[in-house]
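Notes continue from the previous slide.

Worked example: a multi-chain complex. Inputs as given:
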Amino acid sequence: MFVNQFLFLAAVLFCIGVYGVVARKNAVLMLMSIELILNSVNINLLTFALRNGSTDGHTFALYIIAVAAAEVGVGLGLVLLVYRNKKTISVDDLSEMRG
Amino acid sequence: MNLVASESEVLAPLASGWFLEHAWLVPVVPAIAFALIILIGKRLPMKGSELGVLSMFSSLVLSVGAGYQWIQRTNSAAEEQFVEPVIKSWSWWRSGGFDFGIGQHIDGLSVLVLIVVAFISTLVQIYSLEYLRGDRRYTHFFAALTLFSGGMLAMVLADNMMLFLLGWEIMGLCSFMLIGHWWEDDANARAALKAFFTVRTGDAGLLVGIAILYFSANDWTQENLGVSGFSIRGISAWALSGEPNSTAITIAAIALFIACIGKSGQFPLHTWLPDAMAGPTPVSSLLHSSTMVVAGVYLVARLYPVFFVGLDILGSGGNLIMIIGAITIVISAALAFVQNDIKRVLAYSTVSQLGYMMLGLGAGAWLPAVFHIFTHAFFKACLFLGAGSISHSASHHSFDMKRDMGGLRKVMPITFVTWIISTLALCGVFPFSGFFSKDEIIDNVGNNGYNTFMIVGLVGAFMTAAYMTRATYLTFFGEPRGASAGENSHDSHDPHDAHATVSAHDSHDAHDSGATHGPHESGLLITIPLMILSVLALGSGFLNATPFGENWERMKLWVEPRAVEVIDAKHSGGPGESLVINLPNAEESHSKSVCGSATPADGVCFAPQLQHAKFKWSKAMMSMVIVFLGMALSWILSSRLFTKRDPRLVGLTQRVKVLGLGHKFLVNKYYLDVLYEKIIVRSIAYPIANAAYWFNQNILDGILHGFANSTRKLSGWVYQNIDQRVVDATVNNSATFTKSVGTAAQPTQSGKVSQYGALLFSAAAIGALVLVIINT
């Protein structure tokens, strides 16, 4: 069982995801990056579940997939509405919450 | 997931063949076709319908092949040998020690129902090519129809209860989609929901039953047969082994039977089936008369040992299945008399016939009941398709017999002849197919000592003959009325009167605009399925024609499992290992079978020992006379009432109070819908809401008010002394402090999401680092 390789893959995916969230201006790309992060977590869970021979990790991963699907639904809905109102999906233009 | 293949097949002296070994392909083909129709159907020249018809035809070929090889297999067996079903199973998925299998269980019963389902599906899809031409959801209709057939076929050949449940639920879903096919009309959408939820009420029982069976049977089946407690073969053997706890198996049988009540439209959950007629007529013909609704009957027949032991079938007195069946026969037949919608008459007739099947199963008449599934499918599908043919070509999409039909025998000769043949079959007139199955049921019920129930069966036969004669008279005889007389009845319809009409109108507009409006015979795509079905309605009974002696009882030979003890039926284990069955030795084979009556000593049983009634012409003559009496009486009354307008009969229900009350009671369907929707739902939902409101207003609010009053007094003092002097000073100071901090931290609140993200992740990284450092 090559646990290292799986963990390394997960870490790389996670970093790519974080980079996407921090550096990208496009809201849709940010959502996709969040998916990457969630899936890297899934890989971690499954890796350890397989190593420990339990099904808990599988269950968690399934939950995460379901929640991620719901999250993308809401996220895309927000992006669509923002686009309708502002004609842009660049997140830098959405700074109404500035303190 | 692990996909471990563990096959178990029989290599004993029994013949087998490619079609039997690969019977699992039968539901796979429509399942693939469904996916293809959904994905590329709209781009195909015939909008995906060709895929549906083609897949159903291949399923039909595969199942007929399996049927042929099954017959060879039964012929190759010794006379007193149990014909081992062809079982194949694979692990589907595993979780927490549970092994859910997927596989096939092919025996006489499943092959028979496979052939029926594939055959009717093929014909109905061909019929739908014409009937739904130009429909706005044409592709989706065929997709749902194909998926339905796939689900039903999967359920029929399931080797374990989980796969059975899967097929069962797919059918429920497709039923919902197809009833609500024209969902733009509110009534159709409501009928679809009603069907779904009513059946769902029963489905809870299926889950409970499967769970109880698994947990009671698993240990025994693992030890003795090497299969899990979901396996149908395992459960059957366990039920007859004398091992089961009688409470557990009784509760399991009742729970499973509740599911059958819902699915097969038995009293008191039959109310959804007549409303389901809101769907397109091919759907009524396929799902709600010949195939899906017999799923409940099939479940009882499939797990017959469980019901046999759990509900004490063949015991003295009646059991739950018989009582429900008998009630259903009579009450639904009575309802069929007050319907004006031709499809509703047929729907209540279906409910009543399903009652016969249940009565037969409950009374130990397994084979006649299963045979009735077979014959009923042909003649009832034919009747429904006939009704569809009338509405399609003659009565302008109306199903109202009193308003829009009458005198159609001259303009629709093919529909008329096929209808008459099927009606005679339904009424059980010799030599039409219904005679051989229905009369057998009644005869066997009496033979097994249930005389009361036999009388109920005969009363049902009388009523069946009468209401079918009434419907036939209204449709095909007398003077043409309404749309059948050539009137364009677009505007004369009440919108609430025939909702199927309204919906059919808008969906058929494209196709109708160029068509002629007068009544005429339907096209070949409609009449050919009708003719094929009517030939079978006439001829299929001869497959088990008890009056002509043993040689004609082919179904008994091919379909009925032989109640013989099987020695050493245990798996030798391991994938691909064959199952070796030792034949019972000579002296045992002549002794009476203990299956079902005592604990099998050396082996296991898969079917209980049942008796068959000896056919007597005198008994058949008696039921024949009853049927003809029903027909004659109904014919006289109908012609007096509907054509001659006899003043003694017209308005009788208004003049005689008792009859009027009875009529009102029937028209309102025994007030069952009111009971369910108004009383049960409300009595559960409303008091809970009211009680919650009262609790909220009086108790919670009371506590809060009392608390609030005392608090207010206390707080007055606190305000003066503590709050103003001590707390405020602290707060003011901390506020000043916070303000200065806030001003300092303000730049971080830039409103830019990526900046927040960067902060979040760097904080997380720092946290992770700290964690690593602490732990090392």
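Summary box: The mean pLDDT of chain A is 89. The domain at 25-90 of chain A is CATH 1.10.287.3510 (Helix Hairpins).
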